[in-house]
Structure formats: structure tokens, C-alpha cells
From TrEMBL:
It comes from the Bacteria. InterPro entries: HTH_17 (IPR041657), SinI_DNA-bd (IPR010093). Residues 16-60 form the Helix-turn-helix domain. One of its GO terms (molecular function) is DNA binding. This is Helix-turn-helix domain-containing protein. Pfam families: HTH_17.
Length: 89
């Protein structure tokens, strides 16, 4: 996902604002809002503003998460292809 975010750049125990997280992840504010709304990134509201733990930012860019997303995509793709092939019969 974002190879330039390293464990040195993000403190796993650090607390980041949405703006700081956006800059680290190189995403727009609308993407950040979407991630928060869908629960794809965990955050706590403090004084009406979200705060995000560094470990959440690191989780988003981890190779393990990317691997899981790829596996899910391939499973969905296989199901779609199987369904289409059933229609052809």
C-alpha cells in the first residue's frame, strides 16, 4: 500500500489527528472520512475531533492487511466467475 511509511515514521503508541494521519497515509480528507465512517480505521472522538492511534495507521499499511484484502478479492472474483459459468450451462 504505502511503502514509505515505516515503523520509524509512525509511533505505534502515538496519538494522531485525522490531518496528521491523512498526511502519513497520503490520502484525502474525504477518504479519511470514508475510512472512519466505515470503521476501517479505529479512532476515538476527543472534544469533537477524532484521534487515531499510531498502531491503527500501521495496521492499515501492513502487508498482512494487503494480503487479506487480496485473498478476499480473489475469493469474490472466483464466486462471480463460477456464478457466470453456471448461467452459461
Amino acid at each position: 500500500m504505502h511503502d514509505d511509511i515505516t515503523h520509524n515514521a509512525v509511533d505505534p503508541n502515538g496519538i494522531y489527528t485525522t490531518s496528521e494521519a491523512q498526511q502519513l497515509l497520503k490520502i484525502s480528507s474525504s477518504t479519511m472520512k470514508r475510512l472512519l465512517k466505515k470503521g476501517l480505521i479505529k479512532a476515538n472522538k476527543v472534544g469533537g475531533q477524532y484521534r487515531i492511534l499510531g498502531k491503527e495507521i500501521l495496521r492499515l499499511v501492513s502487508p498482512e492487511l494487503e494480503k487479506k484484502a487480496t485473498e478476499k478479492y480473489l475469493n469474490v472474483k472466483k464466486k462471480v466467475v463460477d456464478t457466470i459459468n453456471e448461467w452459461k450451462v
